[in-house]
Amino acid sequence: MPPQKASAALDADTIAAVATPHGRGGIGIIRVSGSSADRICRTVTHTETPAHREVRTATFHDMEGHPIDAGLVVFFEGPRSFTGEDVLELHGHGGAVVIDMVLAATLSAGARQARPGEFSERAFLNGKLDLTQAEAVADLIDGATQAAVRSAMRSLRGEFSERIDVLAESLRELRAYVEAAIDFPEDEVDFLGDGTVLRRLNELQQQLCDVADAARQGTMLTEGVTVVLAGAPNVGKSSLLNRLAGEERAIVTAVPGTTRDVLNADLELDGIPVRLIDTAGLHASNDPVEQEGIRRAEAEIAKSDLLLMIADATQPGSAGLIGVAEAVAGDEGTRILHVRNKIDLTSEPASEPTDPTDPTDATEEVVRISALTGAGIPALRARLTQALGLKSQDEGVFSARRRHLDALTAAAGELKEAIDAFERVGAGELLAEDLRRAHDLLGEITGRVSPDELLGDIFGRFCIGK
């Protein structure tokens, strides 16, 4: 766990917030955390505070002593609580007005309104969670698929943190080894030149790549992926969107240019949340409305994770803006998958499904489908899985975020530079500095090295009651 950090708010403030969703419900919970939780409990309930983890019934009162609600009181004595502080929970009825009245009573008794994510932030600052575990709390709440929820729970249990900690400790040990060799150059054994350092560097780089690959899967689970459908007018983009989404999300007509704006549909692909984006047909046009639609299409292509280039099997290959779209995708590093639609109007056979977990089992460069009949759609789904790099979610994938992947990528870059420089000149001092930077980047993931603005950004995205 990260070392405890000084904070005036932790010493002085007791915070309170509604911990259940707003609106009408059977139960509403007020959570209070801080040194005044015991006193606030006695003030609001007019009874003694329960013992640690004891549940009691009580009546909740406002500051004038008028009864507001009746429910359950639970007290968690710090540090044996989620935040590491004294924590009070008042479980009442879930009406919007009554729960706000109970919250107002706790605020009048000395608490202040908690900021978004402040309970989890205090848990982090008090060493109850590291940063990846705190983020996993939000990921668990926001999980859009069952696979995303399971992966968030793995991170909350510390599986992601453990892999980062193992890497960080290996980097620290290697750095200590290198610095010892620098400090004692008179030793007869050439510690830096005996092959041990280079072997350990290569092992570390492989381990870092393995964790980064798992984090990439976790990032897709947490943040989802965006797939853009592009092509000339009337090639069947909207029909394909409807077919993949399983519902009529886009208007489909025989008139070219029916879609002029961006449409989207959400679906799940092997546990990954996928957002499909249908775009205006790409073609030369003097119509200002169509030009704006094409501009928006190119903007979506630039932001996408995968571009589906749709072609009409009954028409010769399209040119012009299709090449522009592929160029936009190429400039952004977006992967491209070519799809040949309307094979129900030709004699072409539909593509057969491949093994989505085998990246080598994808011999066809173009997927042949019919969005109208559904022919070839299983093959397209398999190719989507391959193109996005999705793997089985039974392999212990943990939830991750873009910042984790960026830090791992940067750390891998530091190790690559370290290996290249060491092979060229064998300078221990430069190697030790590269290892320090890689170690600090890993520390940013778990919060052992975290600037205040990063913490503010992370916890500011939480709901208020967490």
What order do the helices and strands come in, and which of them pair?
Elements (H helix, E strand, L loop, with lengths): L7 H5 L2 E4 L6 E9 L3 H9 L9 E7 L5 E10 L10 E8 L1 H13 L3 E2 L4 H8 L5 H12 L3 H11 L2 H25 L12 H28 L1 E7 L5 H9 L17 E7 L2 E7 L9 H16 L2 E7 L8 H11 L3 E7 L24 E3 L8 H12 L13 H24 L2 H19 L5 H8 L7
Parallel strand pairs: 1-6, 7-9, 7-10, 10-11, 11-12
Antiparallel strand pairs: 1-2, 2-5, 3-4, 4-5, 8-9
Could you characterize what this model shows?
The chain is of the alpha/beta class. It has 3 domains: 8-130, Gyrase A, domain 2, CATH 3.30.1360.120; 146-220 and 401-446, tRNA modification GTPase MnmE domain 2 (Four Helix Bundle (Hemerythrin (Met), subunit A), Up-down Bundle); 224-388, P-loop containing nucleotide triphosphate hydrolases (Rossmann fold, 3-Layer(aba) Sandwich), CATH 3.40.50. Helix content is 45%, strand content 17%. The protein contains 15 helices and 12 strands. It has helices spanning 8-12, 37-45, 96-108, 118-125, 131-142, 146-156, 159-183, 196-223, 237-245, 288-303, 321-331, 377-388, 402-425, 428-446, 452-459; strands at 15-18, 25-33, 55-61, 67-76, 87-94, 112-113, 225-231, 263-269, 272-278, 306-312, 335-341, 366-368. Strands 3-4-5-2-1-6 form a 6-stranded mixed β-sheet, covered by helices on one side. Helix 7 packs antiparallel against helix 8 and helix 10 (288-303) packs parallel to helix 11. The longest helix is centred in the middle third of the chain and has 28 residues, at 196-223. The radius of gyration is 28 Å and the shape is flat. The two termini are 19 Å apart. Mean pLDDT is 82; it is low at 1-10.
